[in-house]
Amino acid sequence: MSTPCPTWGDSFQRLGLHWWHGNCPSPIIPDDSQQIFEGLLLGDGSIPSTSGGNNCVFRIPMINRRFLKWVDERLGVLTTGLSLKKTAEELAANNRRTGFSKR
Ligand SMILES: [Zn+2]
Fold it and tell me: What are the respective helix, strand and coil percentages of the chain, to the nearest 5?
């Protein structure tokens, strides 16, 4: 399902990615989503100064996939989607499996 950008009307699968990398102004964030962002900023959330796009991006570096999926679903089109990193445990298991490290 794609969603039209309110600025020009072009549709995108992930409006968050479009807003991050595109030239359209940042969206107006609904109150309920803003409350989620504020709560996340009190925890692990951050807005890095050099986020790589034209607009700011919100990041939550954590390994709780269930929680991250919940946040992604709640924020809907505002997110850029999940970019899951491997935990230290998963990286170690991968290193052992591939022979990169025996420990
Ligand atoms: Zn746009």
Answer: 40, 5, 50
